[in-house]
Inverse folding.
């Protein structure tokens, strides 16, 4: 069994926690730290609590961005289009209770609570690089579990070739959804073999605690070799389909955003180069760094695209 450990990055080390951590959450995570939570994973009051998680072989050894970088520079259009809008507005989202429905072409459709998912699938810390299509990047210490276990347990039928994902629609709490900036719900999709790849995770936390709301609480996808918009936040539905599902940014502008959206320094966005990126946290004048094919994860994922022309299937 994998050794469990507590992240070396504790909230107490990080000043930005007040951006999203209210007093009740603080007490809950304190109880968990002291080992007083009644179960390994679950909830205290109306918040979720994470406890033990193991270290992953898939983590980068690069230094993570600060919690402040990760929680104050976000894309989450349900809460506005500015980078600081999610930090200001996402606290309005009720994340508990929450149901994640799994349906479509599978023999074992089901609806899970977050507590059920966290109890069923072992959590790991995955320190991944996130590369946004806007040409910035960050290193994030996610906590989550591989999506492939949930897919196997859902028993997809032979015709199922894709997996689609949907975010919650709740304009009362998601002020960005009161305007038609995007067609809601935010939707994403993966080919089933991409979704089964061990790098694809469902994240329920970061920096050793539950997921901040601006980062997609209570549960989001993280697909580190693809542009960040594929890593859909606050999901309520996973469906197995035969046809390639419609995806939000592709629906918005198919010429600019393809279904695959693998990080690729050789295929430029029609309006800017993808050859390099700006690491967040280095200050305004920090130098750009070269963008890596598949965001540096080629050894794990390049095989998925053998024989494909990635300038056509961008
Ligand atoms: N998911 C939803 N539901 N809505 C969004 O607007 N933005 C995407 C992605 N997931 C988005 C989303 C984009 S463009 C990026 S770069 C990442 O979330 C940003 O994740 P982060 O804010 O946790 O860094």
């Amino acid at each position: 069994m994998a050794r469990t450990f507590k992240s070396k990055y504790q909230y107490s080390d990080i000043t930005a926690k007040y951006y999203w951590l209210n007093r009740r959450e603080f007490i809950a995570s304190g109880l968990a730290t002291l080992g007083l939570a009644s179960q390994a994973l679950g909830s205290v009051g109306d918040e979720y609590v994470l406890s033990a998680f193991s270290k992953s072989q898939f983590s980068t050894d690069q230094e993570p961005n600060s919690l402040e970088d990760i929680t104050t520079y976000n894309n989450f259009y349900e809460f506005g289009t500015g980078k600081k809008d999610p930090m200001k507005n996402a606290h309005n989202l009720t994340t508990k209770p929450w149901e994640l429905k799994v349906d479509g072409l599978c023999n074992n459709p089901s609806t899970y609570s977050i507590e059920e998912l966290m109890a069923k699938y072992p959590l790991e810390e995955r320190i991944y690089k996130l590369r946004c299509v806007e040409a910035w990047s960050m290193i994030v210490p996610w906590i989550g579990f591989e999506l492939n276990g949930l897919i196997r347990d859902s028993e997809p039928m032979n015709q199922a070739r894709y997996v689609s994902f949907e975010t919650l629609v709740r304009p009362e709490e998601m002020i960005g959804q009161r305007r038609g900036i995007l067609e809601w719900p935010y939707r994403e999709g993966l080919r089933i073999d991409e979704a089964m790849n061990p790098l694809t995770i469902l994240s329920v936390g970061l920096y050793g605690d539950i997921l901040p709301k601006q980062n997609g609480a209570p549960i989001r996808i993280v697909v580190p070799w693809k542009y960040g918009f594929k890593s859909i936040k606050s999901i309520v539905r996973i469906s197995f389909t035969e046809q390639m599902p419609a995806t939000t940014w592709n629906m918005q502008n198919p010429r600019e955003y393809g279904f695959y959206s693998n990080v690729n320094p050789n295929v430029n966005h029609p309006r800017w180069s993808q050859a390099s990126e700006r690491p967040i946290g280095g200050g305004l004048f920090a130098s750009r760094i070269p963008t890596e094919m598949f965001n540096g994860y080629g050894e794990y994922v390049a095989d998925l695209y053998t024989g494909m022309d990635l300038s056509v299937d961008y």
In short: Helices lie at 23-33, 67-72, 85-89, 114-120, 147-154, 192-196, 248-252, 298-301.
